[in-house]
Amino acid sequence: MQDRYVADVGDFGKFQLFRYLFNHQESPLDGKALAQIWFMHQGEDEKNNDGRHIDYFERMMGSDEYLEYSLMDILMRDKREVTELEEMKLLKNAIFYYDEVPKALEDRYLWLNKALTFASKSQIVAVAPDNGMALKCNRAERCFEYLTLSDHYRQKVYPHKYIFTDEVSYFYRLPHLEICIVYQHLSRCFAHDEQIESLLGSLKSEYRHVIAIKHKPYSPRVFFFLCKSGIILEALQMRLKAFEKSFSEFWQVFE
Questions:
Q1: Model confidence at 62, in pLDDT bands (50, 70, 90)?
Q2: Residue 107 burial by CB count (10 A; 0-12/13-18/19+): exposed, middle or buried?
Q3: Residues 142-155, mean pLDDT to the nearest whole number
Q4: 193 with 171: CB under 8 angstroms?
Q5: pLDDT greater than 90 at residue 8
Q6: Is 26 exposed, middle or buried (0-12, 13-18, 19+ CB in 10 A)?
Q7: Residue 114's closest CA among 100, 134, 132?
Q8: Which of 244, 190, 216, 170 is nearest to 198 (CA)?
Q9: Which range, 38-47, 88-97, 133-142, has the best average confidence (pLDDT)?
Q10: Of 72, 145, 191, 203, whose CB count within 10 A is highest?
Q11: What's the CA gap between 17 and 19, in Å, rounded?
Q12: What angle do CA 47, 88, 124 make, to 5 degrees?
């Protein structure tokens, strides 16, 4: 996560989804304690246009007016800083972890331990690296290898932009956790929906109770929900389907 991404279409999608799940009394997940783990970094040496999609307001108008006005205010004041998202109080029972992801592997483990301690009492943990899970694509087999910190960290040019599979497992095993939400930016490896189905299948093999939802606008991205039980999954499933029905132009559920 970088400050230059703040209030872009990805942020709108994330907060629209999370507010629908965790900020509405009719939701079975209303008021759950949420820990948002930002994978903060400065983006040195990167040459891309990420964060440029801020012309989405007309398309999204009326879907969440408070969120629309809040993000528009950030843009109008030219305050694209991650801390602004917390100060806007967009989520009523959330805490945010801002420590910058270090580059050295040894320091990464220290960062991870601190993040786990920070999130240890939360029922919901959302991890938000720029690119999502560290994966190796197998185009021929239409599947992915999940990369680990211990074995594959140095294979990534920008490891701070990923969460590794052993890190996901550590968050999932937190004692009070009910749902671990993992953000994934879809690649060009093969068709996007095929990627989601492949990842969903392998995550179900590991975590069993998993559901996903794709955010369609611009560069598609997906949120995987790793649930601790079938009861939690069922409650989440009902809420996600209602969300998809209300905003089907922008969102698609995968089960």
A1: low
A2: exposed
A3: 93
A4: no
A5: no
A6: exposed
A7: 100
A8: 190
A9: 133-142
A10: 203
A11: 6
A12: 80
